[in-house]
Design brief:
The structure is a single chain. With about 475 residues, the chain is of the alpha/beta class. The chain folds into two domains: about 140 residues, Alpha-Beta Complex (Aspartate Aminotransferase, domain 1); about 270 residues, Aspartate Aminotransferase, domain 2 (3-Layer(aba) Sandwich). The protein contains 17 helices and 15 strands. The strands form three sheets. Strands 4-10-9-8-7-5-6 form a seven-stranded mixed sheet, sandwiched between helices. A four-stranded mixed sheet has the order 1-2-3-13. The radius of gyration is 22 Å and the shape is globular. The termini are far apart. The model has no long low-confidence stretch (mean pLDDT about 95). Bound molecules: 4'-deoxy-4'-aminopyridoxal-5'-phosphate. The site of 4'-deoxy-4'-aminopyridoxal-5'-phosphate has 18 residues, from α6.
């Protein structure tokens, strides 16, 4: 008998949820008082909730449902694989066909000599793998003191102890602390922190903080640098054009391994298969997850270059792995997802159709009185809300107050658009059509209009002093 009863009334589901379901990144008491929104179904870019609302998912779930909801091919592959071989591990000198085929496919898609895939169950796990991998690399090379990894403030690399430590989010560090051997430098967030500098000068300056940090720590102590090609959870921060070339130059100069966290930017999000291609980055390791399976199954991994794989591989057993590394059902589903993306030209659709169409309409939102800047790369975009465009001012109210109010209007208008502080962000399924982009923009503008009125009426349209 099916144990999932979707016919319970919403209030009943919410009550059970509040009683037994401990949500991630959620104020438990606050949610219990309000009741969680219950999502029942998805089709393409659309979600249906338990109240019958048809919601446009402007976030592709959590940046992951790249091919959209409801693809029956993926369900069929999962069912077939479960019947054939639902599970087997990849420890102890064994393997299976889905893991082999998926690793080979990823190596084919990844640029350069990124030819080796270490599988994990998520992006956080993959970044924990990366910490161990780069430290092990330097151990085998006879430089075990090279173990510090440099990352950025306001970067996001997951919420395990390793991933959360690599990330530069102080509230996460505050809940449980950090692991040792991680250092942070400033982020290339020109809108919020660039002052009077040009974006290009600011990007260069922030990249050069890497060199200063390397010299401060001692180059012989630094194992790697990690960064997202575009910071996602930090508010879709698209770096100035000068940033990544300078980071690359500095990593090369000091022989430091470069890890591109492509958990969001991988698999088409920026209009290429990988964000590293969009920004001209040549990483030694890429972190992947999310779009790899379009979120239909939990799977992540690290794509490792020949040299790092050879060095770590020459050091005897690598004491690391997960029960679900290369899980056959997840691998088979990911493979089918990649087949669909290739056969249907999903990356080309982003590059040639959806990005150009959305870019124009998104940029036009900058004429709204509440919007200071509207930026987009591929299909990830941000809007900076501000009480004073010319000064790129922040609001006097606590950061996030205004963003939350606009987010609430989006919810009310059946559009999922997230807020990060006082920035609004989108990352819709990559298969979104021009007609659906029209709906997204129409609902976003309506929500901004309504939000603007509320913010004005509540006296919140005030710039922070200084
Ligand atoms: N890295 C990046 C860049 C991410 O955006 C995320 C998730 N938002 C992660 C890592 C962590 O992935 P997961 O939630 O699958 O552990």
């Amino acid at each position: 008998m099916n144990m999932i009863n979707t016919n319970l009334p919403t209030a009943e589901l919410q009550k059970l949820d509040a009683a037994h379901h401990f949500h991630p990144f959620t104020d438990k008491a606050g949610l219990a008082a309000k009741g969680a929104r219950v999502i029942l179904r998805g089709e393409g870019v659309w979600l249906t909730d338990s109240e019958g609302h048809r919601i446009l998912d402007g976030m592709a779930g959590l940046w992951c449902v790249n091919i959209g909801y409801g693809r029956k091919e993926l369900a069929a592959v999962a069912a077939r694989q479960m019947e054939e071989l639902p599970y087997y591990n990849t420890f102890f000198q064994t393997t299976h066909v889905p893991a082999i085929a998926l690793a080979a496919k990823i190596a084919e898609l990844a640029p350069g000599d990124l030819n080796h895939v270490f599988f994990a169950g998520s992006g956080s796990e993959a970044n924990d793998t990366n910490i161990r991998l780069v430290r092990r690399y330097w151990q085998v090379k006879g430089q075990p003191e090279r173990r510090t990894i440099i990352a950025r403030w306001n970067g996001y690399h997951g919420s395990t102890m390793g991933g959360g430590s690599l990330g530069g989010m102080k509230p996460i560090h505050a809940h449980g602390g950090m692991i040792d051997g991680i250092a942070h430098i400033g982020q290339p967030h020109w809108w919020a922190e660039g002052g009077d500098m040009t974006p290009e000068d600011f990007g260069l300056m922030r990249a050069q903080e890497l060199e200063a940090k390397i010299l401060e720590l001692g180059a012989d102590k630094v194992a790697a640098f990690i960064g997202e090609p575009v910071q996602g959870a930090g508010g879709v921060v698209i770096p100035p054009s000068t940033y990544w070339p300078e980071i690359q130059r500095i990593c090369n100069k000091y022989g430091i391994l470069l890890i591109a966290d492509e958990v969001i930017t991988g698999f088409g999000r920026t209009g290429n298969w990988f964000g590293s291609q969009t920004f001209g980055i040549k990483p030694h390791i890429m972190t992947i997850a999310k779009g790899l399976s379009s979120g239909y199954q939990p799977i992540g991994g690290s794509i490792v270059c020949d040299e790092v794989a050879e060095v770590v591989g020459s050091g005897g057993e690598f004491f690391h792995g997960y029960t679900y590394s290369g899980h056959p059902v997840a691998a088979a589903v990911a493979l089918e997802n990649l087949r669909i993306m290739q056969d249907e030209g999903v990356v080309e659709h982003v590059r040639d159709v959806a990005n150009p169409y959305l870019a124009e309409r998104w940029a036009a939102l900058a004429d709204h009185p509440l919007v200071g800047e509207a930026k987009l790369v591929g299909l990830m975009g941000s809007i900076a809300l501000t009480p004073d465009k010319a000064k790129r001012a922040q609001f006097a109210s606590e950061e996030g107050t205004v963003g939350f109010k606009v987010r609430e209007r989006c919810f009310a208008n059946d559009l999922i658009m997230r807020h990060v502080g006082d920035r609004m962000i989108i990352s819709p399924p990559l298969v979104i059509t021009p007609a659906e982009i029209d709906v997204l923009i129409e609902r976003a503008r309506k929500s901004l209009d309504e939000g603007y009125k509320i913010i004005k009426d509540e006296g919140l349209l005030v710039a922070k002093a200084g």
